[in-house]
Design a protein that fits this description.
- By secondary structure, the protein is an alpha/beta fold.
- It has 4 domains: 127 residues, Rossmann fold; 174 residues, 3-Layer(aba) Sandwich (Rossmann fold), CATH 3.40.50.300; 72 residues, Helicase, Ruva Protein, domain 3 (Orthogonal Bundle), CATH 1.10.8.60; 86 residues, Homeodomain-like (Arc Repressor Mutant, subunit A).
- 42% of the residues lie in helices and 16% in strands.
- The strands form 8 sheets. Strands 2-1-3-4-5 form a 5-stranded parallel sheet, sandwiched between helices. Strands 7-10-13-6-14 form a 5-stranded parallel sheet. Strands 8-9 form a two-stranded antiparallel ribbon.
- The longest helix is centred in the first third of the chain and has 32 residues.
- The radius of gyration is 33 Å and the shape is extended.
- 32% of the residues are buried.
């Protein structure tokens, strides 16, 4: 049942329209002027309105314009006794969904109402789906606080400020990074955060299409173009019209197809196989590569002119081993995701498990971490321990668990931290904590501890962060705070004494 507003100054006709709609199961309200209609809508909701063009004081066209501003989702059908084509055209330009000529056929009123309400339901469902996709694939789903990820997210936010929907040549975007770093996630974020979110998002894995089918998949074909072409087929360039086309692993395209893709990008026109004419396409092109583009160009595997067209805006996503500080955040998200998916009740991870994750180099990046947590979630009880982490390369890192020496106060010292066999044989100078000589600055102890960790880690910031059980970014912040820089050839370079 829908709520329908009828605005008609001829009361008898208005009652007839309302009665017809009520017979169809709808709830109606009859008003005789534009002012009364606006007043009623100020405190009520309507799904559809039938509005007469000739009304006292203010015309139906004036009411239509007001409703477009105050109630943009309200569907309006105009009614008039004058079969004036110009009036009908103006009403449709102002946002009317349909136009009825008096004397009215009540059956036509019923049909138009049913058609308009069905269109409204489909529109609402589509908007709901788009909202769900934006929530699922928006930038807020990209986790990470490392410098590289924050830089990439800032660029996506910057692109979201541009009105790319009204231009037929939005800037091409090239996303680079190793396999598993989240290039597809960023591609979707670019689409769903931007002004083209209402258009289609079409993703194609260029490396996964057989060489002989690449052209027909991208550009389509017409019936009879070749033996098995029994009907027309739209290419993915055409399917993505008004939206975003994501060419994943574009480095896997054959050189011959790279030339055709280059032409399509430059002209924004394609020719389906067997078609006599070209087709214009309006797409936002986003592409991704997991190999170094310059190396591929040098080896002759990728066209330099295509690369130059693709990288109008370039996002580089760092590998997970360079963003160790993000691992805990990602792992916690994956635990929550897989607990919900499988009905598990894992509460978290032990310190040994987290340390093992941070020590592993993750050649498969975030995708590998996701699979690792999925397996561990299924094998764990309340908490994930290092022993259930899949693969000896990951779980084996737990053997380097930290052990700390004792600490006493007074004329006391703190022992050095050791980490498994990697630290064997290292001599540790004690840090004095003699409170009998007066107060000891906490910052001075922290500076000395940082210097000690850097010495033991042979000036590797990532390794030192693991020894201190902090993220790499946290340690870098502390190094900058105290003016301490690791030297390339050993030792510490410092601008203030420690």
């Amino acid at each position: 049942m829908a709520s329908i507003l009828v605005v008609e100054d001829e009361r008898l006709l208005g009652r007839s329209i309302a009665g017809c709609l009520e017979d169809d199961g709808h709830k109606t309200n009859l008003e005789g002027s534009a002012e009364d209609a606006v007043l009623w809508l100020s405190s009520h909701q309507a799904d559809l309105a039938f509005v007469d063009i000739r009304l006292p004081h203010a015309s139906g066209l004036d009411l239509l314009k007001a409703l477009r501003e105050s109630h943009p989702d309200l569907i309006v059908v105009m009614m008039t006794a004058n079969a004036d084509v110009r009036t009908a055209v103006q009403a449709m330009k102002d946002g009317a969904s349909d136009f009825l000529i008096k004397p009215l056929d009540l059956e036509a009123v019923s049909i138009v109402a049913r058609k308009c309400l069905q269109h409204r339901r489909l529109t609402q469902r589509w908007k709901h789906d788009q909202k769900c996709k934006t929530q699922e694939f928006g930038l807020h789903q990209v986790l990470g606080e490392s410098v590289g990820i924050e830089k990439a997210k800032a660029m996506v936010r910057r692109m979201a400020q541009f009105d790319l929907a009204d231009t037929d040549r939005p800037p091409n975007v090239l996303i680079t990074g190793e396999t598993g770093v989240g290039k597809d996630l960023f591609a979707r974020a670019i689409h769903y955060e931007g002004s083209r979110r209402e258009g289609p998002f079409v993703q194609v894995n260029c490396a996964g299409i057989p060489d002989g089918l690449v052209e027909s998949e991208l550009f389509g074909y017409v019936k009879g173009a070749f033996t098995d072409a029994r009907s027309n087929k739209r290419g993915l360039f055409e399917v993505a019209d008004t939206g975003t086309l994501f060419l994943d692993e574009i480095g896997g395209l054959p050189l011959a197809m790279q030339a055709k893709v280059l032409t399509a990008i430059e002209t924004r026109r394609i020719r389906p196989l067997g078609a006599p004419e070209e087709i214009s396409v309006n797409i936002h092109l986003v592409s991704a590569m997991n190999q170094d583009p310059e190396s591929m160009i040098s080896s002759g595997g990728f066209r330099e002119d295509l690369y130059q067209r693709l990288k109008v805006m370039r996002l580089h996503l760092p590998p997970l081993r360079e963003r160790v500080g993000d691992i805990d955040m990602l792992a916690d998200r994956f635990i929550a995701t897989y607990c919900q998916k499988f009905g598990m009740a894992v509460k978290g991870m032990t310190r040994r498990a987290r340390l093992a994750l941070r020590r592993y180099d993750w050649p498969g990046n975030v995708r590998e971490l996701s699979h690792c947590i999925e397996s561990a979630t299924l094998l764990s009880g309340d908490v994930i321990d290092a022993d259930v982490l899949p693969g000896s390369r990951v779980s084996g890192q737990a053997r380097g668990d930290l052990t700390a020496g004792g600490a006493t106060t007074g004329g006391a010292t703190t022992g050095g931290a050791t980490t498994g066999g990697a630290m064997a044989g290292v001599s540790h100078e004690a840090i004095p904590l003699d409170f009998t000589q007066g107060p000891i600055s906490l910052e001075s102890v922290e500076q000395r501890l940082i210097r000690r960790a850097m010495d033991v880690a042979e000036h590797n910031v990532t390794r030192a962060a693991e020894l201190l059980d902090v993220s790499r970014d946290t340690l870098r912040y502390r190094l900058e705070k105290y003016g301490v820089e690791p030297r390339r050839n050993g030792g510490l370079k410092r601008s203030s004494p420690i």
